[in-house]
Fold this protein.
Amino acid sequence: MIRSLRSVHLGAVLACGLLASPVYAAATVNATPRYDAAQRLFRLDAGGVTYAMGVNADGMLQTLYWGARLPASDTLGPALPAPERSSFDPAGALTPQEYAGWGGAMTATPALKVRLDDGNRDVVLRYDSYRVENDGLAIVLKDAQAGVAVTLRYTADDATGIVGRSAHIKNTGKQALTIDSAAAATWNLPRANDYSLRYLTGTWAGEWHLQTRPVTPGATVLESRRGSTGDENNPWFAIGRGDAWNEDHGDVWFGALAWSGSWSIRVDEDILGQVRVVGGFNPFDFAYRLKPGEALDTPVFYAGYTRAGIGDASRLMHAFERDRVLPGGASAALRPVLYNSWEATEFKVDEPGQEKLAEKAAALGVERFVVDDGWFGARDNDRAGLGDWVVNRRKFPNGLKPLIDKVHGLGMSFGLWVEPEMINADSDLYRAHADWVLNFPGRQRSEGRHQLVLNLAREDVKAHVLQVLDRLLTENDIQFLKWDYNRNWSEPGWPEMSPGEQQKVYVAYVRNLYDILRQLRAKHPKVEIESCSGGGARVDLGIMALTDQVWPSDNTDPSDRLSIQDGFSYAYAPATMMAWVTGSPNWVNNRVSSLDFRFLSAMQGGLGIGANLLEWTPAEAATAKTYVAEYKTIRATVQRGALYRLLSPQGRAPWSATMSVAQDGHQAVLFAFQRQGEESRPYPTLALRGLDPQARYRWRAIHGKVAPGTPDVASGAYWMQRGIDLVMKGDLQAAGIVFEREGGRRATR
Ligand code: DGJ
């Protein structure tokens, strides 16, 4: 019989002798784990998902089921190890273990690989005990002889069924050991040979390309070796079953790693169709030494399942991020409309210039004014000044206060750009502390954008960065920081540590970064932060827990942005995604586009303006003002509603369309775009999604034309079955249509 772990908790805990003072959460949004003592089965039922594990006769903890929620009365055990298939296919490698050590006859990718100082590298993890922690389940695996204990932590979000997994790896032996690789989790999928993988790839100004490839016997590795999240791959995956999985249909398993350092997600399929997704710290150049009694915590790897296609997988991720990951959760503020002059002025920021722009921005209805790079130190270009976070008195003779007061007087909040982890060799800080950067003594220090990376793993560097930022926020009335990070690591040495400890930099750096953000937020709770990394190279669930929004790309061309924003939306919520209206022709590709197209493209996320407002004609300013006002009437729906991708812009497709439905169902917003008009083809009929079939909705156009004969009001069923026809002629056309529900509201996810 399966019993709720909350009810058996104390007895079980005492029986195992594990937890002296159990912590009970008064109110929890995580599901209650259940345990079947007779069969040694663990089960998490949350949202539409059941996740089950069991301890087999050999003491391995193995995955039994991960999929659609099953009745509580169904038994999912017993856990039976896979039989040895041949002398080349041992049981340990074939059994879908939750967290396997590299040891015994293991040939599959292990979750953990360890070297003991005496040369032993054999770690065979076997079930030891379990306990309920305030927020979920903890299962302890051990190899007592090797002196390794691993506590696996599980949470399951009741609303979305998303399971969070991590591992706490402890040296319980008498000698030091080194961890060569440590995953947060291994996710075992049902055995099959018809899976395909979707993942995201990119480069600077070209992030968030959606890729698809079949999962076949062999390995696919998604990773960053750059020291930070990176944009070459993003730590997100989705695996679907069969040929027919799409936006609305099909089994999809998906997940994202909450880590902003080097990471890897490896998708392995063996010849028997067992698929394992192993993700965590990137094993490349990894080594983490533990003295007796010391421990390492991995990041959390979140993953979910849906039967309703990749569209639903994205909506589940969005809801989870919105309500469970982002600071403020469900009660977080909506993203204000911001202005940023980077594309207009680059480094040429000064008090009179910024004041003029602030006046123009305020007149448009902008709510936040952000001063970008160039306000500090000797920063006239990218060759100098990084590290010297003191106001440049040539540009701002009286400090930032006059500008901040002006911005506040205009009714806007004030934001400032910083890049705290970086340093130019031409800076006072580097002249004083050349030893503070990542480096291998005596070796060349490679620069990127003329800058070096401060070694945040050092406690003195961490303290300095924290103190500088704290002072900046204490001395100035700042409401927002744009936190930039513009290069990869190189020569990642930490010469102050012993050779055996230096590679701890991969973990310590990121943990200190998180700690700085945490401390700043605690001390300055009203300050919001954007994660930017030369665009979207640091977007992940780890940084998202400590920041309020992200900058997906430096590419602000509104047509390119359609693909960028679409790719972003597979993994991350529109609530986090900032998008600016900038100048035309666009600096990236010289493409000319209308202000309407630019606004409607940017309104798919958190709206910003980054154009040179001093160059806008009165007519352009009036148009912009109307769009900003319109955006404020729909932003709750766009940012926090349920997103449906109707037409995909991937692969430079000519058409793209999305719609968002408000959480309370009162409003839906449709955005449709035509990049190229070919052969005077009509725009595809758009069948809307997510409406209440019984309710009636009246439409209004922010911009664009609907076909003659379209009713003013119709049922949700009509809009979803008959759909709506738009009239678009020519290149770079766009429409924004708002559907208002007549009468009451209803709840949606
Ligand atoms: C890279 C960012 O992505 C840009 O938006 C801008 O802030 C520049 N850095 C400033 O150096």
Observations:
- The chain has 14 helices and 39 strands.
- The two ends are 33 Å apart (CA to CA).
- The first helix runs from residue 5 to 16.
